[in-house]
Amino acid sequence: MKIKQLVDLKFDNRFTNELPADPETNNNRRQVLEASYSSVQPTKVSNPKLVAYAKEVAELLDLHPSVCETAEFTHTFVGNQLLTDMKPYATCYGGHQFGHWAGQLGDGRAINLGEILNQNNQRWALQLKGAGPTPYSRTADGLAVLRSSVREFLCSEAMHHLGVPTTRALSLISTGEQVIRDMFYNGNPKAEPGAVVCRVAPSFTRFGHFQIYTARSDYSLLKKFIDYTITTDFPHLGAPSPQTYSAWFTEVCQKTAEMIVHWQRVGFVHGVMNTDNMSILGLTIDYGPYGWLENYDPGWTPNTTDAEQKRYRFGNQPQIAFWNLGQLANAIFPLIKKEQPLHDAMDCYSETFEKGWQNMMANKLGLRTFDPNTDDDLCAELLLILQLVETDMTLFYRQLAKVDCSNGLNNQQLDDALQTLASVYYVPEQITPTYQQRLKEWLVTYSARIQADQRSQSERVKQMNAVNPLYVLRNYLAQLAIDKAEQGDYSGVHELLNVLRNPYTEQTGKAQFSEKRPEWARQRAGCSMLSCSS
Ligand code: AMP
Ligand code: MG
Q: What is the C-alpha separation between 100 and 63, in angstroms, rounded?
């Protein structure tokens, strides 16, 4: 049964029912002590327009698609009107930003509308991003601009369709209001169109939710919060106890490792892996200055705010997740009071990541299983070769699948293979005979490995194309959709969302969405560089 009216959504609002509230209800920026959340009201906007919605997310909420096209839907999910059972609130959390403890952060521009239970009894929390200030907004306005909202909306859904754990996006609504942003913090503020995204996830709980209580030595609330989390989001772990806390942390470690393997598989760079942007469910959360690898470069980050240190560069994401888990371990230590279980869980992160990475590389290359005796070297050499000349990571694996290695490669076939790969390079002039020789040698080793695996070409292609996407949300593609959307034309957002629904399948007439970054996008803001300003 699909819901035809929003009033039929069933809210259970366990978060606000079970956790302590801040007694104050105004938006004065403040430190909120001894409370998990503050009640807030979204700010009303003048002229909201639905830019896009995701029918798959509506489905999770049992919403009939026709509901999403009503004025009521737009007014509700921009924050202009509340359903009777919605009890909007902003939560308190802290976090380490760029390696330093930052104290209280909290939902500064996220307003939770409550949690619903769908007909399968699944819990979904609904959260507006950009619907106005909260007590946690610090010096900022609680708003979001259209460009970053388009990016969050599209990337959430693109990641989901790629099979990467992520928060989802129900809707993207422009507000009709202007928001002032200095995009590169260089004294050039500009009015930009505002927007609100409605995010959906089983829970939006972050590592920082636990950290803030420990930082304040509020162990009673720490315990209340972890008990709430376990009973609500991890009910399979059983009744909360110190053992359950360790089991819980182990599961967070595993889920985080799995998420990072997916990021490395598809070439996603989060850009701001602060502990307040890490979900305890191992979901990709808070899409800000993220980016997609174009040329394979482990040192790349799209985030200009991190340009010096490159702490959150692609190749560093696995280590940063580990470091962040260490901070979560510190936060819950007062409840467990033993180091060993926490160390064991962190080891579990490393093992899950290592195994997951090997498995992922075997799939990317079309091997039956990863054999460390041969494949450690095979992968290490490939990842070096990919960096010798600017090589589009996404297209490389798709083109590699087309090279039939099932019977080995003779000289002629090696030349043909190089031809097949010719389209994946950004600067063809970089290709030297030495480079070609090295790539050929790798291809010879690789084809021998494929032969030893007795893999038919069709089996191998199937396996590789199921994990190596053809369509990813390339930074310049998002920017082209944004350019149009800022002119009031939302067709680019719709078309991109549609293509990204099937990222592994070649779609007729959609070749322009699988092309490598054009030269004009190399240095353009939004395409290669992004800031936290959003
Ligand atoms: P982020 O780096 O986007 O994860 O944000 C870090 C903190 O800043 C979080 O507490 C956010 O809620 C807050 N924040 C970011 N942008 C804004 C904004 N425009 N208004 C209010 N708070 C914000
Ligand atoms: Mg954040």
A: 42
Q: What is the DSSP string of 472-522?
A: ---HHHHHHHHHHHHTT--HHHHHHHHHHTSTTS--TT-GGGSPPPPGGGS
Out of 129, 138, 272, give the residue to mutate to test ligand 1, the one with the largest number of ligand atoms within 8 Å of its CB.
138
Three-state SS for 28-51 is CCCCCCCCCEEECCCCCCCCCEEE
Per the annotation, the verdict on 404 as an active-site residue is no
Looking at residue 104, its amino acid is Q
* Ligand 2 mean position, distance from CA 99 (Å): 14
pLDDT in tens, 243-263: 999 999 999 999 999 999 999
Give the domain ranges of the chain.
6-207, 367-454
The stretch 280-293 carries a mean pLDDT of 98
Looking at residues 431-460, what average pLDDT do you find? 97
Which residues is 117 bridged to in the sheet? 123
Report the pLDDT averaged over residues 107-123: 98
From the list 22, 62, 276, 286, the catalytic residue is 276
Task: For residue 93, give the ligand nearest its CA.
Answer: 1
Confidence class of residue 177 from pLDDT cuts 50, 70 and 90?
Answer: very high
